[in-house]
Amino acid sequence: MNAPxxxxxxxxxxxxxxxxxxxxxxxxxxxxxxQTSAEQxxxxxxxxxxxxxxxxxxxxPWQFIGPTNVSGRMTDVAVVSPKGKNYxxxxxxxxxxxxxxxxEGTTWVPVFENAMSTSIGDLxxxxxxSNIIWAGTGEANIFRSSQAGAGIYRxxxxxxxWEHLGLINTNTISRIIVHPANSDIVYVAAGGHxxxxxxxxxxxxxxxxxxxxxxxxxxxxxxAANDLIMDPNNPEILYVSxxxxxxxxxxxxxxxxxxxxxxxxxxxxxxxxxxAINLGLPNAADRGRIGIDLCKAQPNVLYAxxxxxxxxxxxxxxxxxxxxxxxxxSGRIKGATVYRSxxxxxxxxxxxxxxxxxxxxxxxxxxxxxQVRVDPINPDKxxxxxxxxxxxxxxxxxxxxxxxxxxxxxxxxxDPENTDYLVNVNDGGIAISYDGGKNFRTFxxxxxxxxxxxxxxxxxxxxxxxxxxxxxxxxxxxxDLSQGRSKIPSVAFSNAPGxxxxxxxxxxxxxxxxxxxxxxxxxxxxxxxxxxxKNVMPPxxxxxxxxxxxxxxxxIISPHNSxxxxxxxxxxxxxxxxxxxxxxxSPDLTxxxxxxxxxxxxxxxxxxxxxxxxxxxxxxxxxxxxxxVTKNSxxxxxxxxxxxxxxxxxxxxxxxxxxxxxxxxxxxxxxxxDFTAYIWKSTDFGETWKDISTNIPCGSVNVIRxxxxxxxxxxxxxxxxxxxxxxxxxxxxTLSGNFPTTYVHDLVVHPRDNILVAATHGRGIWAMDVSYIxxxxxxxxxxxxxxxxxxxxxxxxxxxRWYANTAKLPQxxxxxxxAQALTISIKNIEGKTVFESITQKDKGxxxxxxxxxxxxxxxxxxxxxxxxxxxxxxxxxxxxINVLSYKD
Length: 888
Known about the structure:
Layout: H1 5-13, E1 22-24, H2 38-53, E2 63-66, E3 74-79, E4 89-93, E5 98-101, E6 109-112, E7 120-126, E8 129-137, E9 152-155, E10 163-164, E11 173-178, E12 186-190, E13 202-206, E14 214-217, E15 223-230, E16 238-244, E17 263-267, E18 275-276, E19 287-294, E20 302-311, H3 316-319, E21 333-341, E22 349-350, H4 356-360, E23 371-374, E24 382-385, E25 389-392, E26 400-402, E27 409-414, E28 422-426, E29 429-433, E30 441-443, E31 456-457, E32 464-469, E33 473-478, E34 494-495, E35 504-506, E36 513-517, E37 523-527, E38 532-535, E39 555-557, E40 565-568, E41 572-575, E42 583-584, E43 605-610, E44 618-622, E45 627-630, E46 636-639, E47 649-655, E48 663-668, E49 678-682, E50 690-691, E51 701-706, E52 714-718, E53 721-725, E54 733-734, E55 744-749, E56 755-760, E57 765-769, H5 771-775, H6 778-781, E58 785-790, E59 793-794, H7 803-806, E60 811-816, E61 820-827, E62 833-841, E63 844-849, E64 853-854, E65 859-860, E66 864-871, E67 876-884
Parallel strand pairs: 1-46, 59-67
Antiparallel strand pairs: 2-57, 3-4, 4-5, 5-6, 7-8, 8-9, 9-10, 11-12, 12-13, 13-14, 15-16, 16-17, 17-18, 19-20, 20-21, 21-22, 23-24, 24-25, 25-26, 27-28, 28-29, 29-30, 31-32, 32-33, 33-34, 35-36, 36-37, 37-38, 39-40, 40-41, 41-42, 43-44, 44-45, 45-46, 47-48, 48-49, 49-50, 51-52, 52-53, 53-54, ...
């Protein structure tokens, strides 16, 4: 439906110099919901696994689209030694599970992709048995897009199977050490919750192989056990660094003036007792994250890499600078500082110089890094990981960057037998050096761990998808259906307008016009054909100090007119001319509390939706839990949060395309360490809300979409995967199929091609043909069996050659009401059976592919018509298959 032309014409002629808006704000009691318990998370996970097993769609396949040329953030690496006899490497994806290579990176396979959490903090190989792998879940870097872990796992068969061994509520695990002489003794440094205080932080020890755990070092409910090392000559001697940190909605984790928990501790009795060893380090309040390591050849030599909050002399020029994301400086500190002890930690001495190099080593987010490694043989050679991988050969006094890799470094393994052999992991993937860092071999094109924040599409033929990727930027790829809907190829992605945190919208009338939001609310209009970009950021309205935009600031193109844009900061801006000019159409829709303003924009609008049925019917949701509606293009706004939980982040609001008063809403509680599934529906413009999460056991929930063809079909993306409802949210099925347990941050359905596209934060972009979902109406669901679709077959160019590349095999999809054994046969026009199989099939959708072979004659069939017959306990169905000759 288009907006009336006369209405648009009037708006375009109107110059708005001031906006008078009446905001109808009603206060309703809201339930405060905080942390989810470990017991509840385990129960929910078990229920989710049952839901996957019983899903009608467990056989409906996803197809990996890509990118095939981009990888993603990795947090750790574990290498089987000695090299030469082994070429096995394990890498930990920040949110992509664990991957393994047995040929030093030529090929990789996922070995940990279905679990309570696929965010990995650390890996450890048992020194006595390289088939025993320990995995700690929960990225310890607590980045903006880090995901909560769910404890620790162990594999005894080199990653084939895994056993969960507790510590669910630690949420982040930063280091694991296995005793070199006793595999039952394991130490785990647990960071604890990212967002909230909790008592599960600290250093744990098991003496029975993980059956039970004892906390052997605990500071308080804000302080993590961060790094851990063991004396190679005496495994009773342990060193651990602690880190007092909480991420706030409005501030990155940082040391604050009353903090006392960050430091280094030493035990000489296997963790029974501990002594603080901080002499020579900065004062406690100035100690942020600390990484530690020792030289194996001289274990009395220790290094500490400290995120140092000691103030430097005020510098007006420095204070006027902004960081990489455009945020203003909050003061000048020492930042990355390296300390050394030559007496096993009794005394520390700063060895790194004070220089711009060191100040910039970790950028403005030293809390992300803090990893240090010492050469196993040379105590004067030390590596510090920040934006770059840095090396010092003079005992930490000066550093140089090692080149040839992606930036942002989180893990390094140095071969103790050949210290020139380095294996590094970073935000772009994995890199290997054979010459001490002079050159690196990188693996970015065969490790699909890409962390997408979002996805959108154009209306080109074939259509393209756009998305932004953590620390990579914005990319686009094509969804090519030319080989069939079940044969969508994986593709390399190319550069697209925008940055690493950008929403995208493409003009539906012109696929060359792409809008992209940048960091924290900037917006650009690009012509991808001509390469011309224009900043169309709304000006700061009168009466507002500055605009606050989320990392992924929302904007939309009006479904009524592609020249009309809506953009969200703390207010909603509207442009009637593709961003050339803007007007403010809302007041500040957030709580706008001064005590919740900091370095990170918070109290912002996060989701906007305009009804396709009525111009000016707009919904807006905020990151501080407010939800609003206007029915008249912003003249009046009404808050509609009655019955919703207290101040939960609104992750998506979606106005129905079919019913005027219907709107869908999801909320995300992960920033309170709350993993409840919040999914809501209103049929009265938000006056009342109904919980439609029903049998989805757990979140966090990131997105909800209404199918563009059928109002009863809804899709939801959570931190466990994707779900579909066939009845407006009365109940849900998982779309698990061949999908890994992954963080689905966004979903879109292409309205012309009926392809569902999922943007995962850790496993790239996937697509699904939802035409099969469309076919499962009530009448089909009540049948015992129904053949839904048979694609045409095409014989290959030659029976002996190019079979795989030129043959098109018939794809057969059918619905089965109850799981049972079926006889599936195919007969030629003379009635001769050319294929027959008795096979067990599942309840719901089932698929099989005919290879165009005559089973008895053991050769290809001829072109012509064939009959498919499916016979079950109470039915026999028949449908034709058409086989064509080869067509170029």
